[in-house]
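ARCHIVE CARD
Drawer: 12
Card no.: 0347
Subject: one protein chain, sequence and derived structure
Cross-reference: see card 0346
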Amino acid sequence: MFQNIIFSIVKKYDFTINYKSLHDLYSPIIGDQAIALYIVLNNEADKHLQIGTKYSNIESLHKQLNLTYDSFLQLRSKLEALQLLRTYVDGNKTTYCFELIEPLSFVKFIDNQKFRHLLYKKIGRTNYERLEYLHLNNHLPKSFLNVSANFDLIFKDSELERIYEFNFNDLYKSISIKTHQVVLLNDQVKDLINFFFNSYNLTLSEIEHCVYNSIIQNENKQFEVDYNLLQINFKKYIDESNNINIFKQTKVNRNAKMFYENLSDEELLRIFTSYKSLNSEHYYFSIKKTSLTDEELKIINTLRNVYHLNDTLINLMIDFSLNKTNGNLNSRYLYKMAKTVNGANLLTLNSLYNYLSSKKLTKNNNTLELTGDDNPDWFSVFNDY
């Protein structure tokens, strides 16, 4: 029955198997036999490469593994479900191609909530906590910063900027292979992806990781990427990075006209995306391009921990106040503003921005001045500053 069926094996990246990851993370979920099949396929791929043979007979593979067709299919399906293997077949169903996927690290594995749930369920709380201790304690201290040279600083080439465009076709293809579904990306989502791609030099796999964890099913039973969820996942991914060069190169969208003129919805969306996409230390660092002082860090922590404001609101307040206080963070001014934000219940980005816009700010001598008789106290602080 299988005498005329042949197969090839593809390893797009020449990776070395992380046996510890396979044993600790994958084996408890899909079993040792499935892991053994993965290892055999990996060895077969190496043999094909050494011998120069592209195809082998699938029946001989079954005999080598001492597996029936049904058993082989069952184990193969488990590998595919945990994204260790992808299977392709030609139109005649006589030629198969198995693509081996590199096992995830512990951090990326548990980032997938479904994988994490299955692992936790299989090994129990005690063993899971042991794994966390073994894997998560093997990292550099968070206080350390990566000060390695940045690609764009070393290889300055105007041609690179012209070709630095995100390939959505590759993303669509990769996501559809993983989900076996058509996943919709609207223009707002695409703009967000482009923002992070250009601002942080993220790879396709990094963007795919965030996109994959942001897929929802809408009211029409269609699968789509949720903009707000994607923003949260991107922000989480960036905030966990200790690479200082990422934030030196970040392109923060700012436009002081937003406080005294009506901007287009598209322009406001770009600015709001910057507010939502960075924690306040990184946002201010991206503006200053130099390390924050202890006093500046204290101001941000006070706004966050004493006045209980989220980073999105703090970033808008920072942006507004920098236009009022000659490019410096002024604690008295910001704390007064924070009291008004809480007192007037301006606890969303839109409500605070609409409140600021309603105060009829005008541009005068390269500074912003408030007009009107209903000025809150924190506006008048600037006159004392």
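Annotation on reverse: The chain is about 60% helix and 10% strand. The chain has a mean pLDDT of 79.
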